[in-house]
Amino acid sequence: MPKTIVFLAIAVCLLAVGTAGLAGLSAGLPVPESGADPQATSAMPVKVAVLAIASSGKFVGDDIGGTMISIRDAQTQELLAAGRTRGGSGMPDLPDIELTRLEPIPTEGAAVFETTVMVDGPRLVEVTGYGPLAAQGAAVRVSTTKWLLPTGQGGGENRVLLHFPGLIVQILSPPTHFLPATAAPLRIPFRANVTMMCGCPVGPEYPWRPEDYQVTALITEPSGTRHELPLQYDLDAPDKAPSQFVGSWIAPTAGVYEAVVTAYQRSYDNTGVDHVTFILP
Length: 281
Description:
This protein is mostly beta strands. It folds into two domains: 44-97 and 104-164, Immunoglobulins (Immunoglobulin-like); 167-280, Immunoglobulin-like. The protein is 9% helix and 44% strand. It has one helix spanning 3-26; strands spanning 44-54, 68-73, 79-84, 86-89, 110-119, 123-131, 140-148, 159-164, 167-173, 186-196, 213-220, 226-233, 244-251, 255-265, 270-280. A seven-stranded antiparallel β-sheet has the order 9-10-13-12-11-14-15, with no helix packed on it. A hairpin with a 5-residue loop joins strand 11 and strand 12. It is elongated and about 75 Å long.
C-alpha cells in the first residue's frame, strides 16, 4: 500500500477521535484527560461528636464508666471509628432545665467521643453506643443512623446524641450464690441499689424521687412456687447512701432459690432488672 494512502488513513482516524471529543464536551459529558483516573476521588475530613445521655437523666460520664462508641458505614458495615466517651455528666442543674422540643440539650461538661472520619461525599453511617461500662449487668446497646456531611457541604461537627433507656439495678443482699450456714427456715434480707443509667441517685433530696419507683423482688422457691416482695426506700441506709430499697423474706425450706429484682420508673417508663440465687442447707 502506498505511503500516501497510509498517512491519509491515520489522519482520518485522528480527525474522527477529535470530533467525538468535541461532541462529548458540547453535550456536557466528561472526557478523561490523558493519564487521569476517572474513578479517582479526594477524601475530605468530617468531624463527629457522639454523646450518650440517660433517659430522664444526665449524660453517661466517667463516674459510671462512660460508653463504648462505634461508627460504621450503614450499608457495608465498614468500621470507620471507635472509642470511648470521656468527660462528666453535664451541667449540675441539667435535670431542672426546661427546654422546648426545638431546643437542643446543653452539652457543657458532658462526656463525648470525638473523632474525624474521611469521606468523599455525604455518607450514611450507623452510630452505636454500649454502656454504661461500669455497670455491665445493666448495660444496653443503642444505635442510630445519620448522614455525615463534609464541612463544605453544610456539615459542621456532625453531633450525635444517643439516648440510653433503663435503670441500673444491683442486688446488694443477698449476694449471688449466697450460702448461709443456718438451716431453713431463714429470714433473707433484700437490699437493692437503683439508679438512673447515668448513675444519678434516687432520693428525697434529688430530682429522682423514691415514690416514682416501684421496686419488687420476685422469689422462686426450690418447688417452683413464686412470691412477690415489694421493696421500700431506705431512709436509714448505711452511710446515709441514697438509692437503696430494702425488704426481707423468710425462706421456708432447704434448696436453691432464685430472686429477680425489678425496678420501674413510672414517669418515664424506665425499667431495670438484676438476678441472684441463694442456697439453704
